[in-house]
Write a structure and sequence with these properties.
- The chain is α+β, with helices and mostly antiparallel strands.
- It is built from ten helices and six strands; from the N terminus they run αβααββααβααββααα.
- The two termini are 53 Å apart.
- The strands form two sheets. The protein has a four-stranded antiparallel beta sheet, with no helix packed on it. It has a two-stranded parallel sheet with strand order 1-4.
């Protein structure tokens, strides 16, 4: 009974230990890793501020529709009162040429002035300026999408770099067992005085072991480096360690379509092209707004002034104003015309040049996308064929190792041939995983070039 109780306690403790370990290590899949990486990316945050600024400019442009100029100015101070030696009443003090300041009577002086201008007709300049600012904000949003896609591709490669490092580490562990087996066989042949064992075979084996140790060190450092980068990217202020949800590096599920399929998508979905289209629209509206500025603008003007000083009288004569105690208001229409026609022509010419320039940018960007897409499609197609050939070669290499091992076990094998077979299989296994990583990277780059979200690769 005591033994059963102790066994149960040990089981509970082991489960608690496993639970604590699981809390310290979390797995993330590809889409989760990319999403968290984007949230932590300083570059993405920086680019997003440009979108905020563009949207702010659009809001500022829209605010110009209603009273683009609305000012309130106030003045405050302390002033003395006035007195009339002639004894004039407060409403007629302006008739006394000998008015004096009353230094024994002080009061607070307050004056406020409001000026407002509301465009009534501007030949569409205000509306077109707003349209230009809104199109500019959309262009900036597409530019942000392009920058974000670039970071997503980097995070995609980093995720699969971790899987590649784990796979290589696993392959080298298996290879280490094979090397130990060959080493034991060589030692046995030495003890038996086997004449088939040549010293050149021993030297080759020792050199192979030395190079293998270097590879192990390189892989260990690669894994440590990737873990540090992951920790930096996914840092949430805790000691949690994040690892990939997958443990093996396999080709991403995909079906390579025709080149025309990706070209059509790129021409319609690439954020750079869509951003340029919005930029063209923005400059077109901006050019129209600049052209409208050469015509007179009809506006409504509103003004109101008020001043109050309790120790100074308000003058009732409409032609006499006491600037410390008065009130007036006015509403009227006006026409504003810029007469610097030379400057206006230069502004229009500059707007036309910018418009033509952004059209040239669209053509240049289209040329660049077509060239890039051709290159990425070629690389993806070659990577797909390469990995198929690699699988066939690896199958042959494994059969070769089994054949040499069998021959050696029955006494007909050669150490050099066995060592060559083991080394060839190891190289092909490593090459297979590297080619798998390259294939995934090429497919992701093709998706990004065609304007397809990389997240679709992780959703399959």
């Amino acid at each position: 009974m005591i033994l059963r109780t102790l066994s149960l306690a040990a089981l509970i403790l082991s489960l608690l230990s496993l639970s604590a370990t699981a809390q310290d290590t979390l797995t993330v899949n590809l889409n989760e890793f990319i999403e968290r990486g984007l949230e932590k990316s300083g570059q993405v945050s920086y680019e997003n501020r440009s979108v905020d600024l563009a949207e702010n400019r659009a809001r500022q442009a829209r605010s110009q529709r209603i009273f683009p100029r609305f000012e309130l100015n106030t003045t405050h101070g302390v002033v003395p009162g006035v007195k009339s030696p002639q004894g004039r009443p407060s409403g007629e003090m302006y008739l006394d040429p000998n008015l004096e300041n009353d230094w024994e009577d002080w009061a607070i002086f307050t004056r406020a002035e409001i000026n407002a201008v509301q465009p009534v007709y501007s030949w569409g300049a205000v509306r077109k300026a707003i349209n230009a600012a809104e199109a500019g904000a959309r262009a900036e949003a597409f530019r942000f999408d392009a920058a974000k896609a670039e970071v997503e591709l980097q995070l995609f490669e980093l995720y699969f770099s971790y899987l590649l490092a784990l796979e290589i580490e696993r392959i080298l562990v298996d290879a280490k067992d094979q090397i130990r087996r060959v080493e034991r066989q060589i030692e046995q042949m030495r003890e038996d005085g086997d004449p088939n064992l040549k010293e050149s075979d021993v030297f080759k084996f020792e050199m192979f072991k030395a190079e293998f140790e270097v590879q192990i060190t390189e892989v260990e450092q690669s894994v440590n480096s990737i873990e540090r980068i992951w920790s930096y990217i996914l840092n949430d202020g805790t000691q949690t360690k994040y690892i990939p949800a997958e443990r093996f590096l396999d080709p991403v599920p995909f079906e390579l379509e025709s080149y025309e399929f990706y070209e059509q998508l790129a021409m319609s979905d690439r954020p750079e092209l869509r951003g340029v289209e919005q930029g063209i629209n923005a400059l077109k509206k901006s050019t129209e707004a600049v052209r409208a500025q050469q015509y007179p603008v009809l506006f409504l003007g509103i003004t109101a002034s008020y001043a109050n000083t309790p120790n100074r009288p308000r003058q009732t004569n409409p032609f006499i104003i006491n600037n410390t105690n008065f009130a007036n208001a006015g509403v009227g229409f006006g026409i504003r015309q810029n007469l610097n026609f030379s400057s206006m022509r230069s502004s229009i010419e500059r707007a036309d040049i910018e418009y033509r320039r952004v059209n040239d940018l669209r053509d240049a960007l289209t040329d660049g996308i077509v060239l890039e897409l051709n290159d990425k499609y070629r690389e993806a197609r070659v990577a797909e064929v390469r990995i198929r050939q690699n699988e066939e070669s690896l199958t042959i290499a494994r059969n070769w190792v089994r054949h040499e091992q069998l021959n050696y076990d029955i006494g007909f094998g050669d150490v050099e041939d066995l060592l060559d077979a083991v080394q060839n299989e190891l190289e092909l296994r490593l090459k297979m995983k590297q080619n798998t990583f390259d294939l995934n990277k090429r497919i992701a780059a093709l998706y990004k070039t065609a304007g397809i979200p990389i997240s679709q690769l992780g959703a399959n």
